[in-house]
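Q: How would the structure tokens look for this protein?
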Amino acid sequence: MIDPQTVEQYGLPGHLQAVPDEIDAVHLPVTGTLPPELDGRYLRNGPNPLPGRRSGHLQAGPGMLHGVRLRGGRAEWYRNRWVRTGAFHDKPFVTPDGRIDLTATSANTHVMAHADRVYALVEVGLPYEVTPDLATVGPCDFGGRLTTAMTAHPKTDPDTGELHFFGYGFVPPLLTYHRLDAKGELVHSREVPVRAGTMMHDFAVTEHHVVWLDLPMTFQLSLADRGIPYGWDEAHGARLGLMRHDRPGAEVTWFEIEPCWIFHVGNAHEDAGGRVILDAVRYSPAEWTALWAMLSRADAARGFSPRLSRTDAERTFGPLPPPPLPTPPPGSDRGVGSRTDGARDLGAPAIGRSSLHRWILDPATGRATEQQLDDRVVEFPTIDDDLTGRRSRYLYTVTGNEPRSRDHCAIVKYDDVTGTCAVHELDAETMVGEAVFVPATPGPRREDDGWLMAVATRRDGSASQLLVLDAARVEGGPVATVELPRGVPAGFHGSWIPRSRE
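A: Here is the predicted structure in token form.
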């Protein structure tokens, strides 16, 4: 995930250190019993700088896919491959004539399948198609119809098979909604009016609505000397938007909320009264800006400064208004633009703590209400994807992954009916990533009739396992563990690709 020089320089734990090469291994050792129904590939994406290169922003770096093939109760192989994007081959994101090259990106955030194709995704560029065996096919613009970036968090409607997604940009169109049909054809695109260019990492859908997250992380030219030129803008405010996706040209209804940051959505659904209920992981302004400042100052401390002059920016983006001055939010003890010593900042206590919240949006009153559902520090919420945009009982998260945390990592299962949690806690020296739900059968079943898959890595990076848990009995621990042939560094998001979709 992070280059070895930076890991050594700041004394970071080994599970964050990038791997130097691509390898293959077969006949992986298994402890316990792999469910014989598991026939497919677990794939996971994350940044992994090339040997000899620095990471830049800690969320940047070329995408690397890690994959494990399961079949017949066996773990047949592991392999890892860089996604060979334009950026991997040193193509500039901004071309000499000032254009943005949407193929010159990292494709480092997510990997998912739609219409029998597998895509590696990052929110600032085109999707990259890859084979089930992790070879890069190339960028995909859906026959020339996609002219914006594509979010790394598209949503598949479980009833129609359509894929909802969006792209955001620095200048108009600042936000564009797109939809693929079940066959993978881009059938609808429309610009969505917003008041500024914001960093919108995720969104939600329901049976009839898109839920937009218009939050106070805005594009700021003054931050162009950092890896990702977005910063906290208290004046922007925070709001959630409802837009009918089944009515072309429908307007957005906006709901003002308390300022916060949301990286990841759990799920959303409509209730019988027409309200929309959104569950997501929320960062307070103080927690988010402290985390973002740490990541940004790390760039400067390591000498990573891809500067872009206003002249170059305006040649690329057109006329730009003066950027807003970033201001520290209430409760923050430092300004987001401050430049303290990067090493000291990285050595600070755990920051970036987030917890599960719920927002209820009522179109009849135009009001939003918010409540905190739990005080645990959690991230990477997942659900049974067959219930995307519908009422779901269970939500899965992980805890203990915020920077510098020494808390035990755990997989946490929330039950929205009973209000209880089931927890599988790992030992103090093991880190765990996102838990992906895999249904046991394609037909009717209980919501938690399936498994959770997650990569666990020793804190020092020395070894990794693929954990397979019974989703109905998370507290019971893994039913099987697959020994991986190397330490797999921390990453972002993954998917289970069943053989039927290869």
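Confidence is low (pLDDT under 50) at residues 300-309, 323-327, 332-347.

Residues 285-301 form the longest helix (17 residues).

Upvote if useful.
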